Amino acid sequence: MFFGCKNMGFSYGENKILKDINIEFEKGEFTGLVGDNGSGKSTLMKIMSGIFTEYDGEVVFKEESLNEDTKIKVGYIFQNPENQIVGVTVEEDVAFGLENIGTEREEMLRRIKWALEVVGLKGLEKSDPNSLSGGQKQRLAIASIVAMDPEVILMDEPTTMLDPVGRREVYKVIKRLVNLGKTIIIASHHSADLEEVSRIVALKDGKVHFDGKRDEFYKNHDFNIEYPIEFEIKKKINKNYDELVKYLGD
Ligand SMILES: Nc1ncnc2c1ncn2[C@@H]1O[C@H](COP(=O)(O)OP(=O)(O)OP(=O)(O)O)[C@@H](O)[C@H]1O
Q1: Residue 12 Cα, ligand 1 centroid: separation in angstroms?
Q2: Which residues does the annotation mark as catalytic?
Q3: Percent of the chain having pLDDT more than 70?
Q4: Helical H segments across 52-195, by residue range
Q5: What is the model's pTM?
Q6: What pLDDT sits at residue 5?
Q7: CA–centroid distance, residue 43 to ligand 1 (Å)
Q8: Sheet holding 199-204, edge to edge
Q9: 40 burial type by CB count under 10 A (0-12 exposed, 13-18 middle, 19+ buried)
Q10: Domain ranges of the chain
Q11: Which of 25, 100, 215, 235 is 20 to 30 A from 85 via CA?
Q12: Neighbours of 151 (CB within 10 A)
């Protein structure tokens, strides 16, 4: 197995949140993780990225249990970028994780440059992260993870805090990461976030309720997923998405 979990279970105290979860992800796969509020999406992602370490079953990365050495290969992006930003400048923020793992200076500078290019923040190296827009902050949070060169990136509702313009910026970056061959799993309530995923995993009552192709999911399952306003309007008036986001963003 490239990445996934076997017979995984998790409880908060007496409250069993995840029951016997078995999911396998292939390298380079782009998957949406859906489910009602409280269905356990964040908990599952925190377990799979190694943030939570007390659970039943196993998280597997490249045929082995995820461990201290390999969990660096699995990045986690929080819903609120503010929770992830620590630096005084944009480049310091990206440097933080690299410093923690003792990256040599030349390599660190190379990775910071590359990560900021990938997320489209080149030129803002010396800026104060607090001065950035919501979309830019989320892209900075993504850059800090990308700089660690993860093979898998788990994104926990990465566009929920953003306006339409910010969302569009983040979609572009996610697409770029997919094109770079990263394995991306995105938890979301917004079907616009899931337009390009090839697979959907849906959680319900602590279990995997659906796991299959995105098109099959939308054909057969009604998960009462909230639609962001711009997606609703897009469907109604069939306007070009970019034009619409520009219109809503003004
Ligand atoms: N620290 C905690 N202590 C106790 N219960 C918790 C804790 N964090 C989450 N829960 C509960 O665990 C369940 C799953 O929460 P989780 O945040 O994983 O769901 P989610 O699917 O990500 O929800 P949302 O879509 O609202 O973000 C919920 O019932 C929640 O109330």
Answers
A1: 9
A2: 157
A3: 88
A4: 90-100, 105-118, 134-146, 164-179
A5: 0.88
A6: 97
A7: 7
A8: 74-77, 152-156, 183-187, 30-34, 199-204, 207-213
A9: buried
A10: 28-53+76-249
A11: 25
A12: 18
Q: Is the CB of 38 under 6 A from ligand 1?
A: yes
What does DSSP assign to residue 226? P
Nearest-angstrom CA–CA distance, 186 and 85: 20
Ligand 1 atom nearest the C-alpha of 43 is 18
On the CB side of 64, CA atoms within 13 Å amount to 7
Q: What is the ipTM metric for this complex?
A: 0.96
pLDDT band for 250, please (50, 70, 90 cuts). very low
Average pLDDT, the chain: 89
Task: Dump pLDDT digits (tens) for 8-66.
Answer: 999 999 999 999 999 999 999 999 999 988 899 999 999 999 999 999 999 999 999 99
Judge if the beta carbon of residue 42 lies within 6 A of ligand 1: yes
Q: Label residue 132 left, alpha or beta by phi (over 0 means left) and psi (-120 to 50 means alpha).
A: beta
